[in-house]
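ingest -> fold -> write
write: protein_1
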Amino acid sequence: MTMNNTTKLRHPEKANKPDNPSPRKPPWIRVKAPTSREYGETRKLIGEHKLHTVCEEAACPNIGECWSRKHASVMILGEICTRACAFCNVTTGKPGGFIDPMEPENTALTAAKLGLKHIVITSVDRDDLPDGGALQFAKCIEKVRDLAPRTTIEVLTPDFRGKEGALEIVIAAKPDVFNHNMETVSRIYPEIRPGARYEHSLSLLRRAKQLDPTIFTKSGIMVGLGETKDEIFPLMDDLIAADVDFLTIGQYLQPTRKHVAIDRFVTPEEFEEYKTIGLDKGFALVASTPLTRSSYHADDDFAELQKLRNQKQG
């Protein structure tokens, strides 16, 4: 199947693997189906502007709550990712170099029409592009500043696979928050993120803060992918050393049986322990619950980060 010179595949490297059953969901991980009027309005507006959202593409369990609050995470650079991470439900394939020229304006118009206080802009990996898609991030930031000046902006970027100058392009556009997810601990990177490298993701976050110390930096991980509890704490230390302000921790949920199975369901008590330890280690903010995702309550979290910074400076 082709579309705009793109080739879509659904995780081709997993096609011949057997199904990977996961344990049944515990009561604390269940969510209600979306039914509100606001959810419908958000869905309609996103469709009208031909935008993709990570809420839909990644099968996020919080879509009902977030869209009912008229909060959505826009996924730019199309819907086809050049990588195939073992946990991710986004379509894998060959995008063919296509970039929608109207994407920045449509993103900004959606932010304005929804009246967003805070927008999260993320993307698929685009290793086919010379800058990894960095310029499109910058254009979206600039357009939101123009059409929705009261909206604060958070970007959740890929690692750009070391493409020279890519990070600098994004940081120069001055997002309010720069987010790049580590996703998991270093030991299982080859299995979980075969196209990425732990040290490179860490260095990206470190470099972002060095380029502009006024930008909040943020990263997220999932638990239940096969990591051990004791491996979480060195990861926290690495992020603190990289001067990361905010850490999110959430439960991995298997999108389909073709994806890596859930190793275990982490209890709410253990998530609370991670939050306490993370704050003790020096993060300004830690969001750690079973349903936490990178952009979940991102508007409230950004307001809290600003408040904490103002208190510190005052």
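write: protein_2
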Amino acid sequence: MLTIRKRLTAALLAAALLVLPVSVRAADDSGTCGADGDNVTWSLDTGTGVLTVGGTGAMADYEGPADAPWDACRSAVRSVTVGSGVTRIGAFAFSDCESLAEVTIPDSVTQIGIYAFLNTDIVRCTIPDGVTCIESGTFRDCEKLVRIVIPDSVTEIDGSAFENCKRLRSVTIPDGVTRIGGSAFYSTGLVNVTIPDSVTSIGQYAFDGTDFMLHDDEWTDGVLYAGPYLIAAKRTLSGACRIADGTRCIAAGAFSGCAGMTDVAIPDSVTTIGYYAFNRCKGLTHVTIPDGVTQIESGVFEGCTRLAGVTIPDGVTEIGNYVFYGCKSLACITVPDSVTRIGYQTFTDCAALADVYYTADAAAWEQIEIGEENESLLYAELHTSQYLYGR
């Protein structure tokens, strides 16, 4: 009798083990993925590889690929269909789905989170009208991406949005885009670049490593332009440099590391100078910033060790962080009364700074917000519009 019971128990246990994998697999093939829990659901057909996301409202954001609920079956995902009613695709939602080749995004989607399609095999994608920002790393490392349609609603393309999309040879940046982030198109296959007039800011390395930058015939006197936008300068640039008349924007980091450049003529047409645009230009001695510039971005002249004088125009309201950090030869500077803020470590390690000329009175100077670690500025002799004010 005992033997029979043992055999029966073993048989029942074996049967349970056979059933258990089916139950677990079913749980892995569907579930919820909404920002509010069950407002959005998902299901995966493991036979076809189609992952369907449906519901109403926003998907949840994830801190990394492994946090998505379909992580265990990520390798089986070959296409994604997002249902009408979903308004946001979550951060890292489909990243590292390396077999994912097709995605359908409905017009209801107005936001696509950071790194949503990182490192997938997507070949082409149409971003729906209503999306205003292509966020950081959205299509980064999509090496098979050959076509992307960016709608007119987009106003910003964030950093690394298309970085390392090696087969992407052409893209239309719509009118209305105002900012292109750092490394946005880094190491893509772009053969030419057309930037709309609406753009006011281009981040560092935005187009580095593209075919466009690698062709020497695109460069003029060691400088690369895309219409009125100065994209980059060769690090071997030396002596005096005259930026072309009509240039409106100098991209972030454009002249970074041009140690042999001694002088630069910036035309009055320039209204934007990107962050770190001239940092580590160790031979640069003097710069006149045009009147149309209203903000001096972070680190623009950081490490320009021979820079002796800078003319800051009326109308500038902010001098950013680290702008003159390490400018050891900077002896004097004129600050217009339009300035309301001087950033953190803006004048750190400016040992030669002796005179600050301010175009308003001492009382107005006291109202300027001055960040920490600016002792070189604070202990220089302050010359105001009324009298010599010693510090």
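write: annotation protein_2
The radius of gyration is 28 Å.
Residues 194 and 226 are 6 Å apart (CA to CA).
pipeline exit 0
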